[in-house]
Design a protein that fits this description.
By secondary structure, the chain is of the alpha/beta class. The protein folds into two domains: 6-200, Spore Coat Polysaccharide Biosynthesis Protein SpsA, Chain A, CATH 3.90.550; 207-263. 34% of the residues lie in helices and 20% in strands. It is built from eight helices and nine strands. The protein has helices at residues 21-24, 64-73, 93-103, 149-154, 173-183, 209-223, 227-239, 245-263; strands at 6-13, 32-39, 54-59, 79-84, 88-89, 109-115, 130-131, 145-148, 188-197. Strands 1, 2, 3, 4, 5, 6, 7, 8 and 9 form a nine-stranded mixed sheet that branches.
Length: 264
């Protein structure tokens, strides 16, 4: 059997990937390629990368999920690594991915661990691999996922473009994507090995009114009217009991997102 094609799908804005020399120096070859989707937001200058096995698509679209979907649409076969322009990869990452694909031949989506540049774990991970469920996918970061592109495209599953950075609801796109896959019957396997390197701080980790607003919309998208309960649980997890004025404000932000989604 021939070796599986793997494509790193990098989302960047205004050529910011050029600031990440280490990512561009990733050792690529015919079966390991990179597709860079460069969204022209604040600049009209198109990105050109004259390196073997790297393809660039310049787009005037806006939003991270749109960028992800452009990447999925422009790869016809093999697996895709979901990536941002500020990531790097651990030594031997390709081997780690190929071993998982070979071991779990009936699995179309894998999640791996993330390391910080200091070598620490990005978040708490289970020591053993497992099959994801509706609850565990809520802790998955998109940059840790590897997707069988042919498989998900055959079911017309893409990122919901109303969610993600640059969209009305600027978070939750990866959780919604994975939940849509679960509902279609796809197995999503967690592999207890690090694959990607990313700083611990990220825009999605800050508890802001916009984040809670987006979480409210995400819970509505995932669980329908039952999503109100998840808003309460989310606020309790972040604010604790008893509900302070701050906690009530957070709950209100979540409900506003919940209502706003129903009108989207």
């Amino acid at each position: 059997m021939s070796e599986t094609n793997i494509t790193i799908l990098v989302s960047t804005v205004d050529s910011k990937i050029l600031l990440n020399k280490s990512l561009l120096e990733t050792k690529l070859h015919e079966k390991l390629r990179m597709l860079v989707i460069n969204q022209l937001i604040g600049s009209d200058e198109e990105l050109v990368i004259d390196l073997p096995f790297i393809t660039v698509i310049n787009s005037r679209s806006r939003g991270l999920s749109k960028s992800r979907n452009i990447g999925l649409s422009n790869v016809q076969k093999g697996f895709g690594i979901v990536a941002d322009d500020d990531v790097n990869y651990v030594p031997g990452f390709e081997k780690i991915i190929r071993e998982a694909i070979a071991e779990f031949r009936n699995v179309s989506i894998f999640t791996f661990q993330i390391e910080t540049p200091e070598g620490d774990t990005y978040k708490e991970y289970k020591q053993r691999g497992f099959t994801h469920g509706w609850r565990s996918i809520l802790r998955v970061s998109s940059i840790s996922t590897v997707i069988n592109i042919e498989s998900v495209k055959s079911d017309n599953i893409y990122f919901d473009e109303r969610f993600g950075l640059g969209a009305k609801f600027p978070t939750g796109e990866e959780n919604i994507f994975l939940n849509d896959l679960l509902r279609k019957g796809y197995a999503i396997r967690s592999i207890p090995k690090p694959m990607v390197i990313h700083p611990r701080e990220s825009s999605g980790s800050q508890i802001t009114a916009d984040l809670i607003f987006s979480k409210g919309a995400m819970f509505r998208r995932l669980y329908g009217y039952g999503g109100v309960l998840f808003i309460i649980l989310f606020v309790l997890k972040k604010q604790g009991l008893p509900f302070s004025t701050k906690g009530l404000h957070a709950f209100k932000c979540g409900v506003n997102g919940f209502i706003s989604y129903s009108k989207a």
